[in-house]
UniProtKB/TrEMBL annotation:
GO terms for molecular function: peptidyl-prolyl cis-trans isomerase activity. GO terms for cellular component: plasma membrane. This is Parvulin-like PPIase. It is found in: Cell inner membrane. Its main location: membrane. Transmembrane segments: none annotated. Residues 249-369 form the PpiC domain. Belongs to the PpiD chaperone family. InterPro entries: PPIase_dom_sf (IPR046357), PPIase_PpiC (IPR000297), PpiD_chaperone (IPR052029), Trigger_fact/SurA_dom_sf (IPR027304). The lineage of its organism: Bacteria, Pseudomonadati, Pseudomonadota, Alphaproteobacteria, Sphingomonadales. It is a single-pass type II membrane protein. It comes from the Bacteria. Keywords: Cell inner membrane, Cell membrane, Chaperone, Membrane, Transmembrane, Transmembrane helix. The keyword Iron-sulfur does not apply.
Length: 642
């Protein structure tokens, strides 16, 4: 919930837009997978008690399914396993939501039905053609999102509670200018010193390992030379290529034409615009003004509750479904330019202008064939592909092996060399699998060596599939020394050179600590080292490095004047001896822009901290008890079922 609040707090606090935005996000989720996940028989054990409420495993499953669907909008291949890192945060969010609900109930803080109704009416998917809330559109919206009215109201109520309770607590914390100025001055602090580099490569000259050295290094570091599990995988593609010969016959095309003959008959098409109002007198006035001016849109301007819409081209059937038979009958009896109405419709009083009239000629069977044939062929190929997949699945279910199942369906088998889980071949570096087979490779490495082969869908539509199974499994093991001898030799040299570089850097640092100049100490290292370089860095520059601050620069800000220390390069390139020669305090008095930025940053952090402290107090007041063992078990079950 804190993360959610942090996002909300960056918008304009205290506006209904925030609630509408939160609700729109919730409403936009496609909950198909949430429903199927619920149907998988998940547990309903208690994970936590929040006041008088219980957080169950089923509730956690539902929330994780919603978050998975949101993730799949960016990554369609995402699974429950991709939520592993956010699992604990999701549990905490649900506990915080329930704590707020209990707090609201305990203190008599009620989110009214009217307030929730208003938010529902503002959702774009709940409006009819007249731009107003429509019960029919609302039901369609709920069906599309696979939500019940109660579920949507619960989600909206949670968002409103979060806005109305948390935002006032955390809104606009005041950070005194004096505090911000002191911290801004710290950012301007200047540190001057020098850095002497001791690269590993400088100590590698003349190092040549013996056979015994290589053997000993290999034996001591066998885990560093492990070859991950390798497999030979078999694939059989089941997709468009396997059903390419399936096409619609002339008889099927003719039958479809006869079945849908009305669609190919001549028809009249009208280009229309309309105005819908609730008052008949207003509709009469708009119709009269439109007939006088010729412009329906101009006639509707300034009229209360008048909703003008360009309907574009409409057939009689289309207009009937939109506005009803009475409106369609009147419109299709009128000539071009006519103002029709007012006519009573399901949405109110409707006035329509016939902008254009076009007679659409019909199509003969021969003319319609180019339209019918591709549609029927596509449908037949989908059916043929589904039959092919079923045939292979049935063969596997009957105990047939990979080759037998593929042969029964007459699909071609392809086999990889030994590959690792990323699809690479150690024996043949040029070997590459098509990128679309990545899900099949992943599943091929998940299957046991004796498991049945499985069909993996390569796209959401199910039109591209592959049968996959392991033909050979080679367990992880150290690579044979003979195959990596040069690598082991180079690693030995690097290790010996690193040890020498560290000893040299340690000696240099000791001499500098006793007062010797850094340049003089570096010159006594016994090898040629880069000359120490002067550095001057402000704290503000560290932020500009976006977390990529060199270890030597970090060390500069841990020292007191005159002190030095040795630091290692995290990448293994060597060592550095850092000495701080002086510190010049910063003064932000002449930089009001920096003070204002620090003040703003502190306000955002303090706002989040206020919200966190308030939630902590709410949990303590309500009484929260977590069942950590149950949560851990649920985590294993839910993520393993991904």
């Amino acid at each position: 919930m804190i993360a959610s609040f942090r996002r909300l707090s960056k918008s304009k606090i205290g506006t209904v837009i925030l609630v509408a935005f939160g609700v729109a996000i919730l409403a936009s989720l496609a909950l198909t997978d949430a429903q199927s996940f619920m149907g998988s028989g998940g547990g309903s054990g208690t994970l936590a008690k929040v006041g008088g409420q219980k957080l169950t495993e089923r509730q956690l499953q539902d929330e994780l399914a919603r978050r998975l669907n949101m993730l799949r909008q960016q990554n369609p291949a995402a699974t429950m396993a991709d939520l592993t890192n956010s699992f604990d945060a999701t549990v905490a969010d649900l506990i915080d939501q329930m704590s707020l609900q209990e707090f609201a109930r305990k203190t008599g803080f009620v989110v009214s039905k009217r307030l929730i109704d208003a938010e529902i009416a503002n959702l774009p998917g709940t409006k009819g053609l007249d731009g107003r809330f429509s019960e029919q559109a609302y039901q369609q919206f709920l069906n599309q999102q696979r939500l019940t009215d109660g579920e949507l109201r619960r989600l909206i109520g949670q968002e409103i509670l979060q806005q109305l309770i948390l935002q006032p607590v955390a809104a606009s914390p005041r950070i005194p200018v004096g505090v911000a100025q002191n911290y801004a001055s710290m950012l301007l602090e200047l540190r001057q010193g020098e850095i002497g580099l001791v690269p590993v490569q400088a100590f590698a000259a003349g190092l040549k390992p013996t056979d015994a050295d290589i053997q000993a290094h290999y034996a001591a570091n066998r885990t560093s030379y492990m070859v991950p599990e390798q497999r030979v995988l078999r694939f059989a593609r089941i997709g468009a290529a396997q059903v390419a010969s399936v096409t619609a016959t002339d008889q099927e095309i003719s039958a479809d034409y006869q079945k849908n003959r009305a669609s190919y008959a001549p028809k009249s098409v009208r280009t229309l615009s309309q105005v819908v109002v609730q008052n008949q007198a207003t509709a009469n006035a708009i119709a009269a003004a439109a007939k006088a001016s010729g412009s329906l849109e101009a006639a509707a301007k300034g009229k209360a509750d008048a909703a003008f819409t360009n309907l574009g081209e409409q057939t009689r059937e289309q207009l009937t479904s939109l506005g009803g038979a009475q409106v369609a009958g009147s419109v299709f009896s009128a000539a071009k330019g006519a103002i029709v109405g007012p006519v009573r419709s399901d949405f109110g009083w409707t006035v329509v202008k016939v902008e254009e009239v076009r007679e659409q000629p019909g199509k003969s069977l021969e003319q319609a064939k180019a339209e019918i044939a591709p549609r029927l062929t596509e449908a037949k190929r989908k059916e043929a592909l589904a039959d092919l997949v079923s045939k292979i699945e049935d063969a596997i279910a009957d105990g047939r092996n990979f080759q037998e199942a593929a042969a029964a369906a007459k699909v071609t088998i392809e086999q990889t060399p030994l590959i690792t889980a990323n699809g690479a071949s150690r024996a043949n570096p040029s070997f590459k699998l098509p990128p679309e087979l990545a899900p099949a490779v992943q599943r091929g490495f998940e299957l046991g060596e004796s498991d049945d082969p499985e069909i993996v869908a390569l796209n959401p539509e199910g039109t591209d599939n592959v049968l996959v199974g392991p033909a050979q499994v080679v367990a992880p093991a150290p690579a044979p020394l003979a195959s990596i001898r040069d690598r082991v030799s180079a690693d030995w040299v690097r290790k010996q050179a690193g040890d020498r570089a560290k000893a040299a850097a340690t000696a240099i640092a000791a001499k500098v600590a006793r007062g010797m100049p850094l340049a003089q100490a570096a010159a006594q290292a016994g090898v040629t080292l880069p000359a120490p370089r002067p550095v001057a860095v402000r704290r503000l520059q560290l932020a500009e490095m976006q977390g990529q601050v060199p270890a030597s620069i970090q060390a500069l800000f841990t020292l007191t004047t005159g002190k030095s220390r040795m630091v290692a390069d995290p990448a293994g390139g060597g060592f550095a001896v850092v000495k701080l020669n002086g510190v010049t305090p910063g003064n932000a008095v002449l930089q009001p822009g920096l003070i204002a930025q620090v003040q703003k940053d502190f306000q955002e952090a303090t706002s989040t901290d206020y919200a966190r402290q308030f939630l902590t107090a709410v949990r303590k007041n309500i009484g929260v008890r977590r069942y950590d063992d149950a949560i851990a078990d649920a985590k294993k079950r839910i993520l393993a079922g991904s």
